[in-house]
Each structure stands twice: as C-alpha cells, then as structure tokens.
Amino acid sequence: MNQIDSQSDSATMTSHDSSDSPEGISLRVPANPAAETRDPSPAIRMNHLSAWYGDFQAIHDVTLNILSNRVTAFIGPSGCGKSTLLRWFNRMNDTIPSAKAIGDVRLGDTDLLSKATDVVDLRRRIGIVFQRPNPFPKSIFDNVAFGPRLHTRMTKSQLQDVVEWSLRKAAVWDEVKDRLHAPALGLSGGQQQRLCIARAIAVGPEVLLMDEPCSALDPASTLAIEDLIFELRKQYTIVIVTHNMQQAARCSDQTAFFFEGKLIEAGPTTGVFTKPSRKQTEDYVSGKFG
Amino acid sequence: MSEKSPMDGVEVRSGSSRMKLDHRFKWLCVSVAVISVLTLVALMTSILTQGMPYLSWTLLTGSPEPDPNQAGIYPAIFGTVWVCLLCAIMTLPIGVATAILLEEYQPRNRWGRMLYSIIQLNITNLAGVPSVVYGILGLTAFVSMFGLFESHNGKHGVEIGVRFYDQFYSEGERAILVSVESADSPMTRPTESMMSLDVNLRPVQVIVIKPGDSLPNDDRLAFTLFNDAEAGRISKKTWYYFSLPLGRGVLTGALTLMLVILPVIIISSQESLRAVPSSLRAGALGLGATSWQVVWNVTLPAAIPGIMTGSILAMSRAIGETAPILIIAGIVYISRAPQNLMDDFTVMPLQVYNWISRPQPEFHGIAAAGIILLLIVLLSFNAIAVLIRYKLQKPLS
User: Fold this and answer.
1) Interchain contact, B286 vs A132, CB within 8 Å
2) What is the pLDDT of residue B143?
3) How do B207-209 and B224-226 pair as beta strands?
4) Do B282 and A97 touch (CB under 8 A)?
C-alpha cells in the first residue's frame, strides 16, 4: 500500500513539475485523493497566541489550526517568530527563563500552555527535529532506542522491533542495518538527520515539528528528507519551519506566512503560492524580499 | 575599477617579518617546555640518587622508629591511602552534584539567580583560599564540632561501635574482662557470679577468694581474684567505631581535604558540563526526557572524561597536601595503620616533613626514599583514575 502510494506520488510530482506553477515553483499535488478524504480535523488549535522573550514580543495574537495528517509549512523572513511558535507547541521554550506566552493552544483536549500540563508526556506526543542533526554520541541503535527507553520498560526484542520500524519509516534502515551498533556520528549529515527523525518517531508522537530540518544539508539529502516528510504525513501531523520557499511549495499541504511576529496569511499551499490574498505574501513568495 | 577601496595605498605587512615572529614564538614555546622538563628531570635525579639506597622492606613495612635503621613509613602510607580514598568517595558525588545543580538546573526567577550567583562566587573564591586556612576550619568544624557534642567529663559525646570493659588482673597475671554499660558506669566489684571474659572475649568462671585464703595450685590460678581487687576501665573499638565530635581521626582529615579540593572539582566539573553541546540537551528534552534523564543519559556521559581529568588533578593535590593535615593530626608517633575512621593517623608528606627536620643525615635519605614512595602512591592513584576514564570514554565520535 505504502509502496504504491509513494510511486504514484513521484509520478504526479514529475507530471506537475512544469505545468501550472508560477515562477518555476513546483507544487506536489496530492497523489491519492482517497487518502486525502480522511477527516482533516485540526490536530492543534491555536487561539490568540502571543509570546514574549522578556519585553520583546515575538508573536502577536496568532490564531491558526494545524490540520491533522497534513504538512503545514511556516514560512517567513528570519526573526518573524515562526521557530518561536513551533517551540511553544512542545514547550521547548521552557528552557528559556525569559520566555512567556499567553493564549490558548490545544492538542486534542490538552492545554499546551498550562503549567499543569505534563511537559514530558507532551513532548512524547509532539516530537521535534532540529535544524542541525544532533544525534547523541552513542550507537545508531541506542540513539533510536533512547526515547522508548525513557518512556517504557521494553524488552530487548520489543526494542529491536521499534528501532527497525522507526529506521524503516525514516527511510534510513537500508543504509544502517549492517552497522546498528556503530557510532551515529559516523553517518553523513543527511543520514544523521533521518536518524534524528527516526529517533523522534520511535516514541510514537502524534505531531512532528521540524525546525528547518534541511538547512544544514546538501541538495540530495534535502530531497531525501522531503520525500520522507511527504511519506510521513500519512501517519503524523507535520509542522515544518523553512526558509526555503521551494521546499514549502514542494512538500507542504498548508502554508502559513508570518511577518514580524504576525500571521499574515494561511491556507492551502497551492493557494498561498499561486493566488496570495495579501500583498506581503505575494512579495515574499515571489522573492521580492526575505 | 573606478571606486576607491579603503585598502588602496595601505602597505601590506611583508610576509617575511610575520614569518620571523611566528618562528620566534615557536622557539619560545619549545624552550619553555624544555626548561620545565629539565627542572623535573633534575628534581627526580636528585631525589632518586639520595633516596634509592634507603629504599628497603623495613622502610615499607616498619613504623617510624627513632632509629634510622628501623624507621618505616607503613602507618603513613596507609594513612594517606585511607584519607585520600575517603576524600575521593565524599568529594566526587558532592562536587559533581553541585556542578550539575549549577549548570543543568537553571534558576527560574530573580531570587534563584541571586542565590546561584552567591554560591558561584563563594566556590570561585574558596578555590583560592590557602589550604592552611582549611586546616583551622577543620579543627573547629570537625575536630571539636564547635563544642556541640562535648560531654561534661571531656569524653566523646556520642559513640557508636565501642564496648567498655573493667579489666582485672588475676593472680595468674591473666586479664579478666567484665563488660559494662558505658564509660560512666560504676566500677565492678569482683564476685563469682559476674559475667567474666578472657582476653579473647570467651566467657570464663572466676574464683573470688578473701585475703588470707590459700591460692589454688592448678591452672585455676589464672581466674582467681581477691575480693578487693581493683579494675581498670578499658575500651575496645570495632572497625566501624564512630564518635561525635569527630576528633583528630582519619575522617576529619578526609573531610578537611574535601574542603580543600571541593571548589576545584566543582569548577572543573562545571567547565566540562558547559562544554557539552546544548543541541544534545535539546534533543533529549525534545524526546520527552526529564531533567534527570537528560543529565543521566546525555550530559553526564559526555562530560565524564573532563570531570575525571579535573578530579585527578584535585586528588593529586589532596595527596600532597601537608598544611591542613599538620593542623588536624599534628606530628605524633603513629605505629600502626588506622583501625577505624576515628583513629589517629599520619600521612606521607607529614612523615617526610618530620624526617627532614631531624638532624641525623640518615633521616634525610629516608625522607628522599619516602618521597619516592609518595610519588609511587600518587602515580598509582592517577593510573587508576586514568583507567576509569578510559573505560568510561567510549569511542563514539
């Protein structure tokens, strides 16, 4: 089933490559409309979120829904608050003493900003992949098994199953299966990043946050990660922050454009890139600034 | 090019002069290194030539007798090993835990930050305090414990692991012990029904006779007492003997050395924790690790090699430290290795100092031999630590 899907994905991508997209931006149109008919209910509902670092307001009153089983791209120039927003979803900003946020952000019934929320469980449900690959200085196996070991007391064989499943999901299994106990830092940058994705999905998250996951990688690795993202959306809700407009266009379903901490425009990627309703969005996606 | 660059017309330094400076700097480094190595070689040669003839089995196993031919350093070797092991066992957990608190558990509010900066300031300042000051601190805080546990008769206030006996000498000149409750119990009167023990603490039956009665002629003589016999109070200490105040024992020495090296260990551990990339912490946090799980699984393993290096340096200092131990233990004649944590002790540097200050030239040679042994103990401690570091440092990068 997966196999067929991915084949048709790539087929559609090539057929649409140079057809109706403006400025040479290729849009990857969903391949299998049947898969898209699954209820696109919001996974994360965000109402009037504002966030500060000390006195500096980084996010101004953002209201946005993140649809489940879709890839949502956050685009915008540097310093527009998109990474900050992402890091509030799983409370990574808790490590910054001066960071604070008000508003209402919910994953299902869980209030993400509440002090009472179990942050540890929240981060299990909302995984994150960082800009630079950051595998632990352990073996490949131990890297993927790290999360399951934190949250469960699995037997060795269960752990092996989880590791293999995650590495297969992250499309890196074939490259590492013969050296699972070799140091993870010996892998190439792209492999390391896919290992980090495997590590993130090994704990069974519902949402995957990706903070510019390809900005430290070469084009070939970037392509591999983008294919992977498109593949993973069948199972996970994905939010990706990117500086790369083509990347947002290629691998996302929804796009939200931020500027100076404000949400300027959000909607289906095709719409935002081809028929932006705001002047700022148009200028940004067409490369006039940013 | 029509536009004028600010670099136009600026004279570029000639390559040869810069290369000359580079060359000179390299030679400066080489000569400094050579000088320090030569100094070490000179010191080692002088110690070895003086000390080697005096290295002997007697020196290694004997007690520090006043006769140079019988003088040994055995009690001091064991004093050093005991004190330094105890010191390491106490200092490492406290030091590393403090460093983890200061580096990994950042304060959330202004008061917390203030408290942290006060702690940090104290630690940094304590690292520079002369060790003799710690000796005086140890004297007040550990030896007498500010007089808190002093009982009225000047004896130890709290004691664990000690038993008191009244000791009689029988007519056969054998010691007979009678167990008593405490050091302040009334003296035992000899009666035939009292629970008596011999020197090996086996129960014996005593015979009490009146003055004028005839003594038994057989081996019962060994357990025969006159009814007016007087006992002396003695104590037997077990290996886990413990008392408060701590007194001038091994534990006090170790605690005082702990004060000396704790700031060094905390600061070096902090440095190694700080050197762990924050991306690793973020990665673990992002997977849902608690602060403790981050520290235990990610930060600490990555920082262990650095922490061990700092600890090795600190322990080397502890082994060689003389001044605080001199204040705690004083120069006393110790003929045996410490038997419990409260036992009197001496350490190798102190013994060496003691010998050097004697007028007889033989003792100066013995002191040199003592220095050689001290170096051997120091190097074996370091070798163990390096081995541990090597074992913990998995080649995963």
Assistant:
1) no
2) 87
3) parallel
4) no
Inspect the interface and report whether the beta carbons of A97 and B283 lie closer than 8 Å: no
Record the pTM.
0.80
A197 close to B (CB below 8 A): no
CB contact under 8 A, A183 and B286: no
B345 contacts B249 by C-beta, under 8 angstroms: yes
Q: Which residues of chain A neighbour B290 with C-beta distances below 8 Å?
A: 120
Q: Residues B340, B78: contact at Cβ < 8 Å?
A: no
Average pLDDT of span B267-287: 93
Confidence at residue A22, expressed as pLDDT on a 0 to 100 scale? 40
Would you state the pLDDT for residue A18? 37
Pick from B384, B314, B376, B386: nearest CA to B99: B314
pLDDT range class, residue A7, cuts 50, 70, 90: very low
User: Within an 8 Å CB–CB cutoff, is residue A118 touching chain B?
Assistant: no
Instruction: Give A196's contacts in chain B (Cβ within 8 Å).
Output: 283
- Interval A204-231 mean pLDDT: 89
* Residues forming beta bridges with residue B232, ordered by sequence position: B167
Q: Tell me, what's the pLDDT at A21?
A: 39
- In 3D, which of B307, B312, B321 has the Cα closest to residue B382? B312
Contacts of A122 in chain B (CB under 8 A): 288
Separation CA B95–CA A206 (nearest Å): 41
Beta bridge partners of B175: B169
Contact at CB, B284 and A121, closer than 8 angstroms: no
- Residue A202 — pLDDT band, cuts 50, 70, 90? very high
